[in-house]
Amino acid sequence: MSRLRIFDESEPQTARVTLDRHDAIAAELARIGVRFEQWEANQPIAPGASQDDVIAAYRHDIDRLMAEQGYQSVDVISLAPDHPDRAALRQKFLSEHTHSEDEVRFFVAGAGQFTLHVDGKVYDVLCEKGDLIGVPDGTRHWFDMSESPSFVAIRLFTNKEGWVANFTGDDIAADFPRMPPAL
Question: Among the residues of the chain, which ranges form H helices?
């Protein structure tokens, strides 16, 4: 189940708010300019489906966002618990960073945890199958895929070169809860 926890940046052990209803999560995140939607495939997706098949299953919503937001490219990333570079990949995303474009991810399968640092608050968003999150450019955040990553995600980009991070150098991410491996 998707979840949003909101912390004061100075109190990483105590969530001030916890929400698990999609509409409530979407409304709360909208207040800070973050898109949170749920999508459904328009056709079945077989395990191990190709990137083209995954994109085709969500083509309507992808095209809508591309037209609405000007995204130029789309791809699919898939990570499994036995991925040989999982530890290095996880570490890369765990440091607080920003982007010069929106970071848009749709979870076709599995889960991931986006944590946003906005105006003295930390918004910890557990995204699961069917969830789309759109983090606006310039928003300080980090991402945890757990020690045992298991997800398939569609990514939309404005920059055709894809994911480019600008690390803040702030170590705040180390103080907040990580994604447990069991999710």
Answer: 22-30, 51-57, 59-69, 86-94
State pLDDT tens for residues 131-144: 999 999 999 999 99
The whole-model pTM stands at: 0.94
Q: Are 122 and 80 in contact (CB under 8 A)?
A: no
- Mean pLDDT value across the chain: 94
Determine the Cα angle at 93 with ends 99 and 111, to 5°.
105
Q: How confident is the model at residue 129 (pLDDT cuts 50, 70, 90)?
A: very high
For each of the domains in the chain, give its residue range(s) and CATH number, in order of start: 3-171 (2.60.120.10)
Cα distance between the two ends of the chain? 10
H or E segment at 141?
strand 140-144
pLDDT at 159 over 90: no
Alpha helices in 49-137 (DSSP H): 51-57, 59-69, 86-94
